[in-house]
Amino acid sequence: MRNALLKCALAASTAIGIVTPALAQADDAASGGDIIVTARRVEERLQDVPISITVLTPTDLANRNIVNAVDLATSTPSLTTNQRFGPEKSSFAIRGFTSESATAPTVGTYFADVIAPRAQGGTTSGNSLQAGSFMDLQNVQVLKGPQGTLFGRNTTGGAILVVPQKPTDRFEGYGEVTVGDYGLLRGQAVINVPVSDTLRFRLGGDTMVRDGYLKNQSGLGPKDYNNTNYKYVRASMVWDITPDIENYTVFHYSDSNTHGYAGKIVACDGSVGRPPAPVPSANAFSRANGAWSACAQMDRAAARGDGPWDVDVNGLTGSRVHIQQFQLINTTTFKVSDDITIKNIASYSEFKENTRNSFYNDNFFVPANPTQRWTVISLDTAKGKNTARQRTFTEELQIQGTTLNNRLTWVLGGYLEFSRPIGWNENVTGQFMNCTSPALPTNLNCTVGAGPLGSAASSYSLSRTQFKFDNHGIFGQATFNVTDQLGITLGGRYTFDKILAIGETTRLNFDAATQSYSRLNCNDVTRFFVRNPDGSPLLVSPAPGRPAVRQSLPVTSPSQCHVEIPNNSNKPTWLIEADYKVTPDVMVYAKYSRGYRQGGINLTNIGFESWRPESLDNYEIGLKSSFRGAVSGYFNIAGFYNDLKDQQVFGGLGSLDTSIVSGGSGIANAGKSRIQGFEVESSISPLDGLKFDVGYAYLDTKILEFVPPVVNFPFQGFFPRANVGDPLNFAPKHRLTVTGTYRLPLNEDMGRLSVGATYTYTSKQFVESGFSGIPVQFRNLPSYEVVNLNINWDKFMDSPVDLAVFVTNLTNNAYAVSAGNGWQSFGYTDWQYAPPRMFGVRARVNFGN
Fold first, then answer.
1. On the chain, which terminus has fewer CB atoms closer than 10 Å, C or N?
2. Rg, the chain, Cα only
C-alpha cells in the first residue's frame, strides 16, 4: 500500500508542476466555477469538493447521445456496466467493484437525492436508472470511491447522482424529434410554467423505439434482441410556502417493454466430443451434453456465415423484458436561520418486472429430431404474475449548519428505508427442456428431447419468493477550516440492515421411464427445511454409500414448502479527510474511508442461501486545479488504494447427483483483494471555440486470498470465476475517453455550429479463470476502441431550432461487453456484443425564455 501511495503522490506532484505555469496567469474566477455539484449533500463548486467526480452537463449528454446506463459508462472513465441482462437491467461498477447474481449493488444510484427502487427477481433487477431518466437533466455526477457516510451502505465503488432540472420562474420548454437507422424514432417534450411568484410546474415526456441490433437466426421467438421501446413521463413542482420554506415534488414513471437481451455462443468444449460424433449418452444430463450441443450450434452458425450480431436463441413464445416503475419524491427545505437549514426527503416507489428468456442464449436440439428442442435454463413469469414486484418507502432528515464564523460546516441526519414485496415474485424455470406457456403443477406444455434430454436432470420449477428489506442509518459529517487554506473533514455513519427472504418453491422432476412429470417436490433449498408431521427431518438416502439427505415427500401446494431465512447486519462506515488550498485555484487532499456492502440471500441452492457483508478500506490522495488566460480549463487527478475483505465471490456449483440437485451457482464470503490505481479528469480550451475533455483511469486489481467455502453433498465443489493472482472481473486496467469539440466562427445571425468527436479506449477485461479449462482466448474480453461523432447547429439561422447529426461506433467495431458463466457447468460460454454503427438526426424547437 505504501508503494502505491508513493506512486500516487509522485503523480500528483508532477501534475502540480505541469499546471503551475498556467496558474500564474489565472484570473479570479476558475474555469469550471459554474459547475455546481451536490456530492456532499449541499451545493458546492466542483473544484472545491475533495472527491474524484465526473460531471456531465446537458450539453455533454446530448452531444454524446447518452440515452441509458450503458451510454453513461461509455463516456465515463472508471465506470463500467455489467450488461449481462441488457441495458434496462445493467448494474454499475466503479474502480472494479462489481456486483453479480443476487448480490447488492456496489454503486448507489440516486435520482433527485433518492436511492433507486429496490427489487430482487430471477436476474439482476432494480437498483438502477429508469428508462428515460436522462431526459431534461441539470447534470449527472459520478462520485468515485466509498460514499458510505452521506449516501449509506452499498456505495463501496461510488455513487451516481442524476439531478433533474427543477422548475424555473420562466415560461419555457422544447419539443424534440430524433430519427435514425434501425427504425429509430424518439420524441421528447418539456414545458415549464410559473403559475405565480411562489408556484411553478415542469412537465416532460420521452418515448423511444429502435429495432434490435442482434438478429435471431433460430426462427423461434423475436426476430431481434436488444431493442429499445420505452415511455417515460416526469412532473415536478416547486412551491415556496414562505420565503424560508421550499417544497419540491418530483414524480416520474417509465414503462420499458423489449424483446430482452441475447448473447452469442463463442466457445464450446470440443474435448468431450463434438459433431459429427454421436451425442454423449447418459441417463442424466451431463456437461458433455451441453458442450456437444453448443458445438453443434456453433457449426450451424458457421455454415450460415453468421456475423457477431447474429444470434441463435430459442426465444420461446413472446420473449420479453417488461419493466414498469415509478417514484414519488418530496423534498422540503426549511431555512431556519442564516446558519441552520433543515431538509426532509421522503419517497415512495414501485417496481414491477415480467421476464421471459433463454438464460444461456442457446437453441439446442438433436439433429435427428429438430422438433425436440431444449435450452439449458429458460426463465419465465407465471401467467398473471410478476418476476419481481416491490414497493419502497424512504425517509431522510438532514440538519445542515455553519458555526464559528462559517469555519465549521456540518450535517447531521437519519435515514429510514422499508422495502416490501407486492405479492409473490414468481419465476418459472425449465432446465434441459423446451416449454411454452407453462403453469405448475398442470398444463406444462413441454417437450423433452430424446436420449440424454429425457433424463432425471430435466425439471421445471416454480420459484415463489418475497424479500423484505429494512435499512436504517444515522450519520454526521463536519468540515472545519483550520485556516483559510487547510480544512479537516470527519464523518461517520452507523447502518442497520435487515433482510428476510420467504420462499415457497416447488419443482417437478422428469421421470425418464414414463417420459412424464408425475411428482411435485419442494425445491433444493426448501426441502432441507421441510419436516415430517412429528417435526423430524425427512431423510432419504439417494444411493448406496451416499449420506442421507433431507427430502420432502410429494406436495400438493407450494405453501407446504414454506421457508423463511433472515440476514441481519450492523456496520459503521467513516471518513477522515484533509484538504489544502495551495492557491485559490489549486487544492490537494488526502483521505481514508471505510465502506461496506451488505450481505444477501438467495433461495436457490443448499448451503449457499446467505452470505455476510464485505468491507473496504480506501486510501486516496488527489489534486484539483483550475486555470484561465490564453489557455483555460481544469486538471484533476486522484490516486487510490483499496483493501477488500470478506469479498463476496460468485462461483458455480457442480452436482454429485442430478436426481437430487442439478447444479447451479452461489455466493460465498471467500475472498480478499486489493484495488489500486489513479484517475485523471481534465478539460482544456487552447483556442477560442476549441475544447478537449480528457478522462483516463488506470486500475490494477488482484485477488490476494481465496478460502474455499465448505461444500456438502449433493454438491461436488464451488468453482469461482477467478482465483488467487487473477484480476477482478470486468475491471479493465486502462480506460481512456477523449472528446474534442470545435465551434465554427460564424456570425451570430447564423447560429452556433459545432463539430465534436469522442474516442473511447477500453483495455481487455478478465471474465473467467483458466481453472475451469476455458481456452485462454476466452478468459478475457478483448480490448476495444469506439469513436462517436456529432454535429450540432444551435439557433439555426437565428431561429429557435437546434439541429444535430450523430453517429455512434463510427468504425462499426464488433466488441464484446459481457460474458456468460456456463463453461464450468455446461461446457460453453457466450458473449454479449455492443451495438454496431448507428446514426440519427435530431431537431429541437425551443420556446419561451
1. C
2. 28
**Would you say the C-alpha torsion 96, 653, 84, 253 has a positive or negative sign?**
negative
286 pLDDT higher than 70: no
Closest by alpha carbon to 489, among 560, 557, 591, 341?
591
283 — pLDDT class (breaks 50, 70, 90): very low
CB atoms within 10 A of CB 330: 17
Question: Which of 526, 525, 521, 505 has the alpha carbon at shortest distance from 555?
Answer: 521
Cell for 136?
A: 431534461
The reply to whether omega before 276 is within 30° of 0 (cis) is yes
Q: Given the C-alpha cell 469538493, which residue does it identify?
A: 49
Q: In whole angstroms, what is the distance from residue 842 CA to residue 792 CA? A: 9
Contact 625, 649 (CB under 8 A): no
Q: What beta strand segments (E) does 259-319 contain?
A: 264-268, 310-311
Nearest residue to 808 via CA among 81, 213, 80:
213
Q: C-alpha cell of 506?
A: 416447488
In terms of Cα–Cα distance, which of 527, 360, 508, 419 is closest to 115? 419
Position 454 pLDDT exceeds 60:
no
C-alpha to C-alpha distance for 175 and 337, rounded to whole angstroms: 41
522 pLDDT exceeds 60?
Answer: yes
- As to burial, measured by CB atoms within 10 angstroms (0-12 exposed, 13-18 middle, 19+ buried), residue 745 is exposed
pLDDT digits (tens, 9 = 90+) for 772-812: 778 888 999 999 999 999 999 999 999 999 999 999 999 99
Read off the pLDDT band of 572 (50, 70, 90): very high
CA contacts within 13 A on the Cβ side of 754: 21
- pLDDT higher than threshold 60 for residue 180: yes
Q: Check if the beta carbon of residue 522 is closer than 8 Å to that of residue 530.
A: yes
C-beta of residue 510 within 8 angstroms of C-beta of residue 517: yes
**Which grid cell sits at 774?**
476455458
Which pLDDT does position 32 carry in this prediction? 45
Of residues 733, 154, 164, 208, the one with CA closest to residue 495: 154
Q: pTM of the entire structure?
A: 0.90
Residue 241 φ/ψ region, left for φ over 0, alpha for ψ in the -120 to 50 degree band, beta for the rest: alpha
Q: Which of 337, 539, 365, 412 is nearest to 150 (CA)?
A: 412
Q: Which residues contact 8 (CB under 8 A, 6 or more apart)?
A: 621, 638, 639, 640, 641, 678
Cell 466503479 belongs to residue: 94
Helix (H, G, I), strand (E, B) or coil at 8: helix
CA distances from 581 to 22, 50, 291, 488 (A): 17, 11, 61, 12
Q: For residues 53 and 695, give the distance between their C-alpha atoms in angstroms, rounded to a whole number.
A: 11
In three-state secondary structure terms, 458 is coil
- Interatomic CA distance for residues 530 and 515, integer angstroms: 28
